[in-house]
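Example 3.2
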Amino acid sequence: PAGAVIEAIKKIAERFNLKLDFRKYSSVKMMEDDLQEHKLDIMVPVYSDAWTADVMNILETNAIFDVTMNIIYTDEMITSPSDVIAISENSPIQYHYVKRYYPNNPIIGYADFNECIKAVKRGEAKATIVNSYLSSVLLRSDNLLKSTELSGRGDFSIGVYKGDYELVGIFDKGIRVTGRQDFENMMLSNAQRAYQFSIYEYLTARWQLILSALMLLMGIATMIFVRYSQKMQRKNMELEEYKEKLEFALKRAEAGSKAKT
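Structure, written as C-alpha cells:
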C-alpha cells in the first residue's frame, strides 16, 4: 500500500520501533469488520465524525492531516443530483466525503486519481473530489481543470478498536512528535506522485500557450528576416552606387588620358 497516511504511519512506527504488517482491503466495510473481530489492530485512513466512530466502535487518533477538500471539474460545478462523480476505488475518504456532500449523486469508481481526472476531462463524470494538496498540483499541471474549495475540512486519522486506548496513545504521541510540517510535506509529495502527466496530455493542456509561443517566435523570426532583408537591400544599393561612381571616375580618367595624348 502507498499514500501519505501510510507514509505517516511508517514514520511513527519507525520512531517507536513498531513492526507493521499491512493488509490491503477492497472495501471499508470489510476493514471495519476485521477490526471489530480483532483481525486488525489499526485501520487507515479513517474519516468520520465522533458519533459515527462511536457507532462503528472505533477509537480515532488525533488527525494526521487536516485539509480542505476541493471539487475538480472542467466546465461547471455539480448542479444536479444526476451529475456523476468520479472517485478512486482505493480511497475510502474520498467516498465518504462524496456521500457526505453529494449523497444523491451517482458515483463511478476508477482505479486511481489519474483515471478520475481523465474521466472528468472525457466527460464521463461531471467532477471528482480531492484534497487541497492534490488540487494545487492538478491546477499547476493542467489548465483545462477548475477547482472550487468545499466547506468543511477532511481529517485523516488512524482508527483502532474502541477499547485500545494504549495503542491510540502511542500513535497520538507519534503524531505530536513528528509534527504537522512533516505530515504536510508527505501529503504534498504524495499528491505530486499521484498525478502524472503524459507528454500528450501536457501538450494538449497547454496548446493555447504553445500556439502563442510559436506565433511569437514566428513574429520575431519574420521581423529579423525583414530587417536583414532591408539591410542587405541597402548594402546592395550602396554597392551599385559605388560601382557607378567608380565606373564614372574610370571613364573620366580614361578621357583625360586620351586628351593629353
